[in-house]
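Repro case for the chain-ordering regression, as requested:
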Amino acid sequence: MQLAAEASSDTSRTLTITLFLIFVAITLGITIWASRQTKTATDFYAGGRQFSGFQNGMAIGGDYMSAASFLGIAGLIALYGYDGFLYSIGFLVAWLVALLLVAEFLRNSGRYTMADVLAFRMRQRPVRTAASVSTVVVSIFYLIAQMVGAGALVSLLLGITADEKFLGMDASTAKVFTIILVGALMIVYVVVGGMKGTTYVQIVKAFMLMTGALVMTIMVLAHYKFNLSTLLGDAAARSGKGAAFLEPGLRYGVETAGDATKTFYSKMDLLSLGLALVLGTAGLPHILTRFYTVPTARIARKSVLWAIGIIGVFYLFTLALGFGAAALVGGKEITAQDKAGNTAAPQLAQKLGIDYLGGDTGGAVLLAIIAAVAFATILAVVAGLTLASSSSTAHDFYANVIKKGNASERDEVNVARVAALVIGAIAIALSIFAQSLNVAFLVALAFAVAASANLPAILYSLFWRRFNTSGALWSIYGGLLSAVVLVFFSPVVSGSATAMFPDEDWHWFPLSNPGIISIPLGFFFGWLGTVLSKENDAEKYAELEVRSLTGHGAH
Amino acid sequence: MPATPERYLEVQNSEEFGRLRQTLRKFIFPTTIAFILWYALYVLLSAYARDFMAVKLIGNINVALLFGLLQFVSTFLIAWYYARFAARQVDPVADDIYQDIEGRATAGADEGRTV
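-- result from build under test --
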């Protein structure tokens, strides 16, 4: 089955675009409404701290369930079966780190950014600079990944083939156009709506995504009379891989017969990926800033509980969607459309529509809805990322490093708006050049940097009395450099067929994910930097500790 | 309103705050280690015990799938259990200490006014 079956493709395309425009119109309306409510810096950075636990839980879900989660994981499961599921488990368990060790303490001790906590008892300027650098690096990598993904998806979702013109554009022009459009919209959301606007965009998107995934899941399960075993059996049979499809090992930790070294590294890579997934989440700046949008630490706790529920249920849906796509669409048909499997969920939607909602028209309608949900997903995530990095640029770098804490609120917010514009423009430009890049590598890098540079500094800051400025700088820069350097010399950049530079080879690091080395290094550097310096501010630590545990003096 | 640095040091060294810190750390650190080990076990089994993971339990549902679903169950349970623990054993003590700092700050201000 072709995704763009001639008769239905035009209907579907028009519908996709119409639905997407409706989403854009609604969210822009919300954004303009939110801009009228945005008067202070707290409104812009933290949405006025007025969101409820459930609202923020939905928004966290909206920030977290990226296109990579929705299309990527469903696609991974559809093509590689069990291993896609393994990926989503890491993404979910990670939330316990955020719940137990980070969310409440961060909410109590910080104000707008991650650096508020890191610099609390340190010398402000160097620590804020470091935190700002790592925030922008993590966010930009993640941003490019999402936007390149958006560009690649548009031709697939709209069914534009290489030799076809759409509104006078060929496939590659359409990609560039999508990247610019997505980028321009995200800038508008952030510049105009600030955190309040962005949060509502996340909530609307999370609602759409959950509803879309729920409907498809019910349809898939109903098709198999709610018998999971039959669904799995069919998926394994149609995947062309048999029983191995339901077991780990098709994608990660692949065993190469007769090559013990290769097998060993492949399995180490699986462990490394697992570690980066679990420890990366609680260090992602756009996730951390979400905890500031609620009035108290207890509501921050509640919002993480909601987020765990929403995200967990969503990943259970993707399990049904992925196996459903393998069983009902078939592995061959999915790879024919997209080698990476990113179109598995939309293809499944089309198939379900044809079977259950009245033929080709039904197929076109359901495909259009899911494609529009995917666009909405990408748009919301990029807005969240842009906001986090522009907040850090304005609040950490401009107000506290350049102006040494003497900037007026108004100036700070204006700088944040300009920063969103600049960062957005840079992300658009980089994404256009990065179109041929392997998206998975950018995401892996973002998670590895977050886990190696940010998480050690946050945990030491909150729980280790002795920690100091030198330790914070060592752990942030040390973790950041370890992750970036190891990735640069890994097979994802050079020396393999799927690398960024497939024709060159300077790699010496055997793993594609640096986490298993760079995360311990981040913690080690933090310890080393600390013991190398005598500085220690006991009074400020007393304030930080009392504040983080009781909320006394919290903003 | 933040209190004075001396006051925060005093609170930090108080017995009640020490107990709060102990209660909290005794829960969050071991629980974190436990769920990371539990997750690591799952990843290690996926990497190195493929025959075990492939054992079929009911129909096409094998150990690997059950193990994966158990990770979901354990995540939900730990989140729920932590929320219950925090509400019962942490929040009341934290509130007491908060009130204590506030109360004394206000009391100090009142004394200032009467004198």
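Ordering looks correct now. The longest strand of chain B covers residues 56-58.
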